[in-house]
Specification:
alpha+beta; eight-stranded antiparallel sheet; three-stranded antiparallel sheet; 5 helices; 27% strand
Length: 244
């Protein structure tokens, strides 16, 4: 096994209050505990702010290096009643396990996403709670921040989104906070909850692009709107040049 080869293992822990299932990269996290999926299990956990995603998230330091811990939370009207619980239909269908597996697949395809470290599911009688641990992308900022600073690489953004779509990667909520940039020209897409790998590009591609455009217009109301529209047009042009 090479140093960077992913080796997925699954651990089952039985508790009086329910069962815990953990899917993890045994090559980078040879041992896992329930405490690794709670911010209180880390002395230096810091809340993540200014990035997309519905779940609560923290920057943490793991045995595999710097990571991001995410708890899955509901949105909408149900959030007031069942904030962090979902109907259990098997571990493989939980939000955390599905996102872990999708991130692993996208990473193996050479697409720029955070690498998954571990997925957590605590099962009750009919419901479950979930968390996900991924590697932290270092020294990044969101596309929103780049637009507001006038440094958004519009063409590269369009090309990157097209690469994902060409591979069938259908993001469930592609907004301007879920696209991160680093200082070396790297572009990453995060928060793949409720996302799928399609068999081929299709009508869904245009809908995802429209969602991203709406997000940019909503998040960047204090920017020069003419420059913003020009940037979005450049992004779209670059996108369509790459798409098959």
């Amino acid at each position: 096994m090479t140093e960077n080869e992913h080796r997925t293992s699954i651990e089952h822990i039985r508790r009086t209050e329910g069962r815990v299932d953990i899917m993890f990269d045994a090559g980078r996290l040879p041992q896992t505990t329930e405490q690794q999926f709670s911010p209180s299990g880390y002395a230096d956990a810091r809340p993540v702010s200014g990035q997309g995603g519905r779940g609560s998230a923290w920057f943490v330091h793991t045995p595999a290096g710097d990571g991001v811990l995410k708890h899955y939370l509901r949105g909408g009207l149900l959030a007031a009643f069942v904030n962090d619980r979902y109907l259990y239909l098997g571990a493989a269908r939980t939000r955390s396990f599905r996102e872990y597996q999708l991130l692993l697949t996208l990473s193996k395809l050479g697409l720029p996403v955070p690498k998954p470290l571990a997925a957590f599911c605590r099962r009750g009688l009919f419901t479950y709670q979930a968390a996900l641990l991924t590697e932290r992308l270092q020294d990044t900022h969101s596309l929103v921040a780049a637009v507001k600073h006038g440094s958004a690489p519009w063409a590269a953004i369009g090309e990157t989104v097209a690469r994902f779509h060409s591979a069938g990667a259908h993001h469930g909520d592609l907004n301007a906070n879920n696209i991160l940039l680093d200082g070396q020209g790297g572009i990453f897409i995060i928060d793949w909850d409720k996302s799928v790998l399609e068999s081929s590009p299709g009508a869904w591609c245009g809908k995802v692009l429209e969602r991203l455009q709406r997000s940019l217009l909503k998040e960047c109301t204090d920017c020069d709107q003419r420059l913003l529209q020009d940037g979005i047009a450049l992004m779209r042009t670059a996108y369509h040049k790459v798409m098959p």
